[in-house]
Design goal:
The chain is built from 15 helices and no strands. It is mainly α.
């Protein structure tokens, strides 16, 4: 759209339309999964995403693209809910952090590799759409031929965003903070690097190294959250994110190599808030509520991704290019304060939430009322 001369505002509408579709998909698609099952739902959502991606290549922007991006976001939301709920249902509370961290590693690895795809194809051709269609369609194959059975779903437990906020407020604000921070970083990160005077290669490195850090620290932090109380790990992650963000924001005259090291750590902390939040929230629900938890988490995350890119530029106007990291440091401080408050107010997280439970209807496993 940029190469065709459309303004950044119009391009932004297309960007926001994707997340709007993701939010609404997170609201309504959970019922589809419970009625059709994980495997058939995955195939359907992949088909929706593939179809809308290909339709986008048939029309000129912006209006058709905004519409098709909305439905692509809805399809992708369904894919995320299927995958994440499947993994959480098949893992025990003692292994959820590690299992979800492996999934996040695969996700961020694919995202970072995918960024280089635009260097291999003609941007103004249908090839980028064809490649996306191929990968989206091919994802159905392993799901259909795998020997492992999909999880058996118990009767769905009614869960919405407000219920999550009331029952597990710390988990809710982990999802929101992750969306506010990562949405802003993806949208404003290149602007920060450009206004800091970096070359095109250096801008690419800034973004790639942060994503690489998010991929590299997923498993260690996820494993720690299985071994220790998740609230403690959330507090440590917030403290680390605040410290690193402040270091980048207030020490502008540092070498580029040191900046890349700090960005690696920044990504490691920032990109682990969402999986920490979803595993922590899942500890307070039975297997019947896991799909609803993943849907609600994605909805809150998507809302943050829409708001973050609009708020972060205000900090750039006040503090200059590094205002992005001032903004993220403030988010980390607020989430850390909430985590400390919940830790002081509540007893240590019940060990029963760390015990494995059987995934079948009528489970007698008990779960805490709230966090």
């Amino acid at each position: 759209m940029t190469s065709d001369g459309f303004s950044s505002l119009v391009t932004g509408f297309s960007y926001s339309s994707y997340y709007a579709g993701m939010m609404l998909g997170a609201i309504y698609l959970e019922k589809v999964i419970h009625s059709k099952g994980h495997i058939r739902s995955f195939a359907m959502f992949a088909a929706i995403s593939s179809t809308t991606i290909m339709l986008q290549s048939f029309f000129d922007p912006p209006i058709p693209w905004i519409i098709f991006r909305f439905f692509t976001g809805a399809g992708v939301a369904g894919l995320f809910i299927v995958i994440e709920s499947w993994l959480l249902l098949m893992a025990s509370p003692k292994t959820r952090g590690a299992v979800l961290s492996i999934y996040m590693i695969a996700l961020y690895c694919a995202q970072s590799i995918g960024q280089f795809g635009i260097n291999l194809v003609q941007i103004n051709s249908v090839m980028p759409f064809n490649l996306s269609l191929i990968f989206c369609t091919a994802s159905i194959i392993p799901v259909c031929i795998m020997r492992a059975a999909a999880p058996t779903l118990a009767e769905s437990e009614y869960i919405n965003v407000f219920y999550i906020m009331k029952k597990v407020p710390l988990g809710f604000f982990c999802h929101l903070t992750a969306g506010l921070a990562l949405g802003a970083f993806y949208a404003v990160g290149p602007i920060y690097a450009s206004k800091s005077g970096f070359s095109l290669l250096e801008i690419s490195l800034v973004m790639a190294v942060a994503i690489l850090g998010g991929m590299a620290l997923q498993w260690p932090i996820g494993k720690l959250s299985d071994l220790f109380q998740r609230r403690h790990i959330i507090i440590l992650v917030c403290a680390g994110l605040c410290l690193i963000s402040c270091s980048i924001a207030f020490f502008e005259h540092i070498s580029f190599s040191l900046l890349l090291f700090l960005l690696f750590l920044f990504g490691g902390f920032a990109f682990t808030i969402y999986p920490l939040g979803i595993t922590y929230t899942s500890d307070f629900f039975s297997s019947a509520g896991i799909t609803g938890v993943t849907a609600a988490a994605l909805l809150v995350f998507g809302f943050g991704c829409i708001i973050g890119p609009s708020v972060a530029p205000l900090f750039l106007a006040i503090f200059g290019p590094t205002g992005l990291f001032v903004y993220i440091a403030i988010l980390a401080i607020l989430l850390g304060i909430l985590a400390i408050y919940r830790q002081q107010k509540l007893p240590p997280q019940s060990e029963i939430t760390k015990e494995p439970y059987h995934i079948h209807p009528g489970s007698t496993a008990k779960f805490p009322e709230n966090d």
